[in-house]
Design a protein that fits this description.
With about 140 residues, the chain is an alpha+beta fold. It has one domain: CBS-domain, CATH 3.10.580.10. It has helices at about 5-10, 25-35, 55-65, 70-75, 90-100, 120-140; strands at about 15, 35-40, 45-50, 105-110, 110-115. It has a 3-stranded mixed sheet with strand order 1-2-3. The chain has a two-stranded antiparallel ribbon with strand order 4-5. Strand 1 (about 15), helix 2 (about 25-35) and strand 2 (about 35-40) form a beta-alpha-beta unit.
Length: about 140
């Protein structure tokens, strides 16, 4: 299974935020939408970074409540890894595990076209395992 298939199933909506917005705007959007990260981008939809719940917690731990007035650009993860639509879920899972992150923007020609989360990957992986198990049961039953 590829990232393109995941995006076909879940949709391509990606919530973004501009780097000049304040961290309190991130908190509001994450809470309102019940998500764990926003892609930081400009009007060209080029990913400039990512800001996650973890980044917000680190900022609060370091600066206290004053961090909420800081621009997103100060606390975002700049070295964001991206993936293209033809990547397999195994590739993405490996990248997420190695990088210890839970969200990966999907790009095409350098532009943001979607996002996948570790839960998207795990769900599809588990679904595939269930399908294989069912196929084996059917095979054994008819043998």
């Amino acid at each position: 299974m590829t990232v393109a298939r995941i995006l076909r199933e879940k949709g391509r909506e990606v919530l973004t935020i501009a780097p000049h917005h304040q961290l309190k705007d991130v908190v509001g959007r994450l809470a309102d939408r019940k998500i764990g990260a926003l892609v930081v981008s400009d009007t060209t939809r080029m990913p400039l970074g990512i800001i996650s719940e973890r980044d917000v917690i680190r900022a609060l731990a370091q600066e206290g409540a004053d961090a909420l007035e800081a621009p997103v650009s100060r606390h975002m993860t700049r070295a964001v890894q991206t993936v293209e639509e033809d990547a397999s879920i195994d590739e993405v899972m490996g990248m997420m595990e190695q990088g210890r992150f839970r969200h990966m923007p999907v790009v095409a020609n350098g532009r943001l076209v979607g996002i996948v989360s570790v839960s998207d990957i795990v769900k599809r992986h588990v679904d595939a395992l269930h399908g294989e198990r069912q196929a084996l049961r059917e095979y054994i039953a008819t043998a």
